[in-house]
Amino acid sequence: MKILSIESSCDETAAAVVENGRKIISSVVATQVEEHKLYGGVVPEIASRRHCESINGVVKEALAQAETDLSGIDALAVTYAPGLIGALLVGVNFAKGLSLASGLPLIPVHHLRGHIASNYLEHTELEPPFLCLVVSGGHSHIVEVTDYTCMRVIGKTRDDAAGEAFDKAARTMGMPYPGGIHLDKAAQSGDPEAFRLPRPKLSGNMYDFSFSGLKTAVINLIHNAQQRGEQLPVNDISAAFRKAVVDSLLTNFIAAAEQLGYDKLVLAGGVSANSLLRERTLEECNKRGWKCFYPPLSLCGDNAAMIGSQAYYEYLAGNLADMKLNAAATMDIATLGKK
Known about the structure:
The protein is an alpha/beta fold. The chain has 2 domains: about 1-115 and about 300-315, 2-Layer Sandwich (Nucleotidyltransferase, domain 5); about 130-295, 2-Layer Sandwich (Nucleotidyltransferase, domain 5). The protein has 10 helices and 10 strands. It has a 5-stranded mixed sheet, sandwiched between helices. α4 packs across α10 (about 305-315) and α5 (about 160-170) runs parallel beside α7 (about 210-225). The longest helix has 27 residues, at about 235-260.
């Protein structure tokens, strides 16, 4: 089954053709990073306009690379939540138009489910059940995946997401957008023990995260030094901050896996590209004899191939949409396929 999928939840306009949820036939991404870099982050209105300009060409290119047209496609898929509402609407309305014109079934896909599914494209042996840590600029979730379309959030951030904290700390250090990539690179030659940064402790759900205080601590550290006219070692601060974030993520992730009895751990989302997170997760899994999976760097960021992968399983579960489909800025990952 070949699915043409569309992704436009933030600042990447993407389209792909994926076969049976596991094989990428084509994948095209038009990024807006250079433009948003001028503003230090994504400007929603600009993102929406660029999606409008790019989406037709991106879809045509995905079909061309797959050496087919709509007659060779079995279904359409689109990210409809969560994300920037204006950006999502561009993809949703374009997909609805294609579905109406072609008669092809339309599959709505939750963005975070797509990130989890990016692993299916790289690891053909991976099947649920497993425990997944989904970390990106807007989300930090521990998700129990009991089946391809049945998921439950075990823990999540109560304030900032890990990716957002990385980007804001990096921006304070003068790094260009997207800052998390540059901070990770700087940290590789820094001393993670050079600065002591807090690890948040929360009451209530023991698997929840909080990165607001940690982010504020490193920003205050930098600002205070600047006010005194001191030049702090950027590589050391980056290394200390990266270690603090990864420590917080893995402490809860490993604890949840042990408590729930999972021996198969998966990383997903943009922050799954972080070199220390990948290294430490693999290390912790190897110590316990667990299996560890994470997507290739090319599939960590937003792309349509991951949407096409998850769409295949949504289709098998009967999760289809009609012309009433609308976009949603926020939505629980467990909304579809909930039993």
